[in-house]
Amino acid sequence: MPKFAANISMMFNEVPFLERFAAAAECGFQAVEFLFPYEFPPEAIADVAEVRGIRARPAAVQRMSVSNLNIVTQRLDGEPFDLVIATNVFIYYDLFEQALAMSNVEAMLKPGAFLLANVSAPDLKAVTIRPVDTTTTLYARGRAANENLIDFLVWYKAHAN
Asked: Could you tell me the CATH superfamily of domain 52-161?
């Protein structure tokens, strides 16, 4: 049986954004996705949603920030990152755009830092960032054990100079 996530950026627009999580649950959705969450602080979203993916210590979470960036055409200047999380991003790009995005992400990472993505990007000779590990995480629980939704996460490591 197919499983669907409600895209609450497009659905349930008759209610305010933070109320859409409950509206989706009331309609039977066990998972949601949304675009451009930058209007709301992460704490506000965490209060109304069960967040899944990776675990981070509270001290690390307090140092995290969200950036609105088109990784195909833009790079952030300044201090490089230890971790870039880009889930549900690369799957929307063709091979050329994936290559540009990987190049931009690599340029924003410290040597030895990580990219976490839920897509296996093509092996590109132009970038040195390479997959080093995979993680499977439970995305949503179904009523039966065989109905559980999982996500396949790939850890990429930036080349250490």
From this structure: Vaccinia Virus protein VP39 (3.40.50.150)
In the prediction, which pLDDT does 33 show? 77
Q: How many CB atoms lie within 10 A of CB 156?
A: 23
Q: SS3 helix, strand, coil % of the chain, rounded to 5? A: 30, 25, 45
Mean pLDDT of the chain: 79
Is residue 85 within 8 A of residue 113, CB to CB? The reply is no
Query: How much is the average pLDDT of 75-95?
Result: 84
Nearest to 3 by CA among 138, 136, 140, 119: 140
Cβ atoms 42, 18 nearer than 8 A: no
Q: pTM of the entire structure?
A: 0.59
Q: What are the domain boundaries of the chain?
A: 1-51, 52-161
Beta strands 109-117 and 81-86: pairing type? parallel
Distance in angstroms (rounded) separating the CA atoms of residues 50 and 141: 12
First to last CA, the chain: 47
Query: Which residues pair with residue 138 across a beta bridge?
Result: 150
